[in-house]
Amino acid sequence: MNQHIAFWTKAQMRKQVAVIQGELAPSLVLTNATYLNTALKKWVKANIWILEDRIVYVGEKMPDHRSGTEITDLEGKFVVPGYIEPHCHPFQLYNPQSLSRYALQRGTSVFLADNFMLLFEMNISKALSFMEDVNDLPSNFFWWCRYDAQTELLEEENYFSEKSVRQLLESPYVLQGGELTSWPRVLHGDDTLLHWMLKTKKAGKKIEGHLPGASEKTLTAMTLLGVDCDHEAMTGTEVMDRLNAGLQVSLRYSSIRPDLPKLLRQMKEEGITNYERIFMTTDGSTPAFYEEGVTDKMLQIALEAGLDPVDAYMMVSYNVARYYGLDHLFGMVAAGRVAHLNILDDVTNPLPESVLAKGKWMKRNGKDVSEDKDFDFDWEGHGIRKREITWDLQDEDFQFSGLVGIEMYNSVITRPYNVSINPFSEEINEESDECFLMLIDKEGKWRTNTIVKGFAKNLYGFASSYSNTGDLLIIGKNKKDMALAFERLKEVGGGIVLAERGEIVAEIKLPLAGGMSNLSIEELVVEEKRLTNALRERGYQYEDPIYSLLFFSSTHLPYIRITQRGIYDVKKKGLLFPSIMR
């Protein structure tokens, strides 16, 4: 098999047929399996033949030739397709490699992933190579085509252009446009974005919306403009509105919007009984949120809410595959499909006891049997390395003049406020919940300075290379501790660093492009919790500080943002103060 796109050569297909004709032995046969037949929407008992990475037969028969065939009896067990995550941001401190290894142990084997980070780290050709080569892992990754940066860039045309959009849409690994955070621009007449959306539709690909709080009128308008799916419903009524507008719906259960239990309850109250146009997504949650599970956790919630297990398992497999035109490869236990299979001890327990990915055991009888070599990935060869910071902060970088600052309303919403402190002092008073805030170019060319209120009350020095664009965020009450945190970040080649009174008190090293750890998810959960606890001890009071860092620059959210171009008023669509060239 071509591991990349799950197409097989003529020679491989002839071998697969030879198994059916009794001329060749399969690699693996699962006997007496009770499997989810998604064509019939029922549980059926059968034997499942696999040759290498492909299911070649599902039925009552056993193969004529079994020399070298591994035969595993699944009497009393249940087999379901590998779970599919339809809306993934695989660069949230973790990386595609570590995420897939962790998620496979819990049954998730296919990802529809955001490539946003790649566009800021490499040219489009290298990004396309990365998006292809990551499929050498046991999981499968498919990708999006972003239309905008969801922030204000100094040189947006370097990242989003007619050429880059065309190249992305030509890739067989790119299955959709979006997510469309810039939908107001389209709705109010931006023909460039609409042109790219039309190109997406002509390429036969989907468009993922981002429509929080959208009215019936707006949902209908965006459907007319080409949006196919939305993951922003926050109530059962909003789910119903999207279904009525003809949209596919992703129900979200994430670290900043754990809405799924409420949504399922309210959907029941709304009388929704058909789940064929519904998925579930964790929407790129941060590592600690995944400690209780990935797709398996959402399945558990759905089953506890009383959903028929057939509906629940189809929501995370066949429904997604069919929507994206991938049901010839995934989402079914049927001949011709990639052998991503989860073996359950009971349909009410979605955490698999055993997992096959591309026909190879990743987990068996509750034990991780994957090999390190299965997850080898050449980061350096793909241009992903430590963040090299070859410049220094200067005294003038710590000038924070300005009357309008940024006030945190929750973990992701910020609003303007009138600064009352002295921004020229070396340290902000401990009684204040204000901190200095700087966004500075990763190459040291420019900076944007302001004051942030409500992020943390007793945070002295904090620096992060994890941000929306990979530029550096530096926050704190004490300018010397801010400089110390920056120096430590520079020393380790990227990360998130907390400094206090001349000492480093917590950090997460992010040696992959300054935004990703090379640790396992399990190790990263420990580090993230330690950092989050340290921030909470210093006054951070919202759901997720990692998302706060990510969204400081995100202009798809209200009301004021710190960007490459300066302090940006989202509502008025203009700069309050420009960035300063260094």
TrEMBL record:
Documented EC number(s): 3.5.4.2
Keyword Hydrolase (UniProt): yes
Keyword hit for Hydrolase: yes
Record's keyword terms, sorted: Hydrolase
UniProt xrefs under PANTHER family: ADENINE DEAMINASE YERA-RELATED, N-ACETYLGLUCOSAMINE-6-PHOSPHATE DEACETYLASE
Pfam families: Adenine_deam_C, Amidohydro_1
Domain of life according to the entry: Bacteria
InterPro entries attached to this UniProt entry: Adenine_deam_C, Amidohydro-rel, Metal-dep_hydrolase_composite, Metal_Hydrolase
Domain (Adenine deaminase C-terminal): residue spans on this chain: 412-573
Top-tier EC class: hydrolase
Family per similarity comment: Belongs to the metallo-dependent hydrolases superfamily. Adenine deaminase family.
Catalytic reactions of this protein: adenine + H2O + H(+) = hypoxanthine + NH4(+)
Name of the protein described by the UniProt record: adenine deaminase
Residue span(s) of domain Amidohydrolase-related: 78-352
